[in-house]
Amino acid sequence: MKRLLIIDPNERVRESLRAIFESGYALSIASSLEEGKKLLAEPTDLLLLGLPPTGEPLPSELLASCIPVLGLADSPMSIDGIEIVFKPFDVEEIRARVAQTIQANPRGSSTGLPDLGSPINLEQAVNDFERSLIVQALEKCEGIQTRAAGQLGTTRRILRYRMDKLGIAPSARKQSPANPCQIPLAE
């Protein structure tokens, strides 16, 4: 059974989410971030987090936990890497968003690690993880390697080395045919 961690200071929101999800998910519920941090030790598939209206930064333990986060906000806001649902939310919408977020972030186990019930190839698992990070950064940066390297906290040269090592082909840069600086080559 998938496990949801619900953290929201509003008791009515917590109880509403409990009523919506208690029949299909295992639930852990907290009223504060401090209380919620203690529950992060439990295997969790999704964190439903009531976002503070002040825009204060989220604790690094929550963002570094490898648990996907679905934010619940009272007013329009944007936080990198967090999908947001605005209150008041529709029951069917929140159910669908939770299911989609869990499905989009499949995990071998709730910790984000591969299932260790059978032997794994550690080198291959590390390469697969590194490959997925590089591909995500390249997609986010529209194939611009210098920007992707910046997202990954490295240099373009090291990124190119790792791309070559992992067999990641550089994406072809798209050029607009309407670009007046583009000179067609004679064949």
Describe this entry's structure for a reader:
The protein is an alpha/beta fold and 187 residues long. 39% of the residues lie in helices and 13% in strands. A 5-stranded parallel beta sheet has the order 2-1-3-4-5. The longest helix is centred in the last third of the chain and has 19 residues. The C terminus is likely disordered.
Characteristics:
single chain, 187 residues, alpha/beta, Rossmann fold, Arc Repressor Mutant, subunit A, 7 helices, elongated, disordered C terminus
- How big a fraction of the residues is strand? 5-15%
Share of helical residues: 25-40%
Q: Strand order within the widest sheet?
A: 2-1-3-4-5
Count the E strands.
5
What's this model, at a glance?
This protein is of the alpha/beta class and 187 residues long. The chain is built from seven helices and five strands.
Secondary structure: elements and pairs:
Elements (H helix, E strand, L loop, with lengths): L2 E5 L3 H11 L4 E5 L2 H7 L6 E5 L9 H4 L5 E5 L9 E4 L4 H14 L17 H19 L4 H7 L4 H11 L21
Parallel strand pairs: 1-2, 1-3, 3-4, 4-5
